[in-house]
Design brief:
heterodimer, A: two-stranded antiparallel sheet, B: alpha/beta, 8-stranded mixed sheet, 8 strands
């Protein structure tokens, strides 16, 4: 390893490009993604109880494929059943 | 004979499209292939000077389309390779003088009598670009290992996919191995990972490219140039010949020897 562990510019170029390309390809701005998240929370909440603050949504890429990945933790429903 | 029509494009300007076209055409001609180059940049003609043919132009592509001359009359024969031709762009300001169907028709006329038709696309994603890809059997995207060039290349790849032109192959031009080693330039692997398309060649940064353009004698004709070798290899791959990728990491001189001795590459 290098003695001087300053982060080199190539890694920041790659990280920045990864983000920019995902948004370019989907034509979706971070603000639109945020509003999609709000709509999603509303829709899902009609059926099942979720924790809105814990919902995470993001775009991922694999080669030239884009994927919308959402992590939506559910509130425990076992108590309702037991009652 | 039925020619393969290859379009070279990039999105961003100044990444080396015209240089790539001139070099690939020369390399193919050196391999005995019959090659016709078309300058697709209407209004900003350039391929002629890079190929050293600027003094021979009588007719251009718009003259062909508008019926002022026959296709053969607009084909300028190269000075060194009698089987290599250039169809120059017009210097007219009317970018609408050429349509995608004009390009398809011209390329179809050329197919029967050549091995390769190489189209030099203008930068951007507008009319000239659309014209240039209309007839392509295969598209090569040129980029530099640099944020703006990679971003624009990605846009172009997206459009080509949407147009069902198939997945293009990538030429990474002007890679500086010393900067990559120092982690101050995106590596070929980084660029490939970002763009998600297949590589056809990596061309190292090389002063002799500019010297070749100055003389109107593309760098492939210089046996000692690394960039020239990279272009000759790409030309082989276009002919379906498998050629291993250049090891751009090999260092020469004392510093390279020390690094090899200490096992630090």
């Amino acid at each position: 390893m290098n003695f001087f562990t300053r982060k080199k510019s190539a890694s920041s170029a790659k990280e920045r490009l990864q983000l920019v390309l995902v948004h370019d390809r989907t034509d979706l701005t971070p603000a639109q993604l945020e509003s999609l998240k709000d709509d999603l929370i509303k829709a899902i909440s009609n059926y099942i109880e979720i924790d809105p603050d814990a919902v995470q949504i993001g775009l991922e890429r694999e080669g030239r494929e884009q994927r919308l990945v959402a992590d939506i933790p559910l509130r425990s429903v076992s108590r309702h059943r037991a009652g | 004979m039925t020619a393969q029509v290859i379009t070279v494009t990039s999105g961003k300007g100044g990444v080396g499209k015209t240089t790539a076209v001139a070099n690939l055409a020369n390399a193919l001609a050196m391999d005995g292939k019959k090659v016709v180059c078309i300058d697709g940049d209407i209004g900003l003609r350039n391929l002629d000077v890079v190929m050293g043919l600027e003094n021979r132009i009588v007719y251009d592509i718009v003259d062909v389309i508008e019926g002022r001359c026959k296709l053969k009359q607009a084909m300028i024969r190269d000075k060194h390779y009698p089987d290599m031709y250039l169809i120059p762009a017009a210097q007219t300001r009317d970018k609408n003088a050429v349509s995608p169907s004009d390009m398809i028709r011209i390329c179809n006329d050329l197919r029967a009598d050549s091995d390769f038709v190489i189209i030099d696309s203008p930068a951007g994603i507008e009319r000239g670009f659309r014209n240039s890809i209309a007839a392509a059997d295969r598209v090569l995207v040129v980029t530099n290992p640099e944020v703006s060039a990679v971003r624009d290349a990605d846009r172009v790849v997206g459009i080509l996919e949407a147009e069902e032109k198939g997945s293009p192959r990538l030429i990474i031009n002007r890679l500086n191995p010393a900067l990559v080693r120092n982690n101050d330039m995106l590596s070929a692997e980084d660029v490939l990972d970002l763009l998600g398309i297949q590589l056809i060649g990596v061309v190292p940064e090389d002063e002799s490219v500019i010297i070749g353009s100055n003389r109107g004698a593309p760098v492939v004709t210089d046996g000692k140039s690394r960039a020239g070798l990279a272009f000759r290899n790409i030309a082989k791959r276009l002919q379906g010949i498998e050629v291993p990728f250049l090891d751009l990491d090999q260092q020469s001189g004392l510093w390279g020897a020390i690094q090899r001795l200490t096992g630090r590459k």
